[in-house]
């Protein structure tokens, strides 16, 4: 069922969501007030209505079910507010992103012409290194996030497309479906329409990929800034360990923490998370083995996490990115990466 194409309804009475109405009902635009109001949930109305209290006309033309879905995505992802400090390491990337992306979006008057932000940004690097976290941190800074039409109505906004290679891959799979070809074309067209230099549009498109070399050339041109998000350095790994150990009883000395960190060369951020979680399970397993009732226990009833737990955890959680892959990312970075 298409959205009604009539002008946005008037007044506020019709804006109350009518549960289960779906947007349905015949009658075209003739009884627009009631039907338009019934198409969207209260959350969507609150998110998308402009200063005049009306939903912009472009959005009214979209399928209400899709508007609802996209808007739920917006609300859900902004629920997990990520701040820059939540991302360990990646200092250079964080600085560059703030300089070329966040400030221009917050203060577009200053960042025009030669200072205009790039029209797109590609974050690339091994899986689990914080690309998605960076996307979320940008969105949290800008406070809004949405997709194309909705994004334009909500600007400044950020569209973050994870694993963008899966949509915009250069590889012509045998018998590529007509539908995926169409999706690809539509994506490229929409991305073109988001260029801040030509349209003054303040929608930033960010793609993330673990396979940058598989991207379509056309897609790469639309994401001209390519930022390498490498595996975390020792300092970042140390921050991750210390942060995760906050609130957990442990008896590791600073020297032991350094030892743990030194043993995790090549671990990604998500490997580190799994590794520390695994180590923290050590005292729980011991308690279970000795037949204690873990159900009623508090943190202080468990023995502290120790170096041995980390040594055991190392067997369970190996690094997930192999050295050959890292070389591949570094070569790609040499060739295409933004220098900073
Ligand atoms: P990707 O680079 O594949 O998008 P994510 O950003 O989704 O990786 O990271 C997956 C998880 O790993 C995060 O939710 C977080 O728990 C952890 N992680 C990865 N990188 C970092 C980092 N730099 N700082 C803190 N946690 C991280």
TrEMBL record:
Amino acid composition bias (Gly residues), ranges on this chain: 20-31
Region (Disordered): 1-35
Domain of life from the UniProt record: Eukaryota
Coiled coil: none
GO molecular function: ATP binding; ATP hydrolysis activity
Alphabetically ordered keywords of this record: ATP-binding, Nucleotide-binding
Domain AAA+ ATPase: 117-233
Family: Belongs to the AAA ATPase family.
Protein name: AAA+ ATPase domain-containing protein
Organism: Chlamydomonas eustigma
Shown segment, full-protein numbering: 262 to 601 of 617
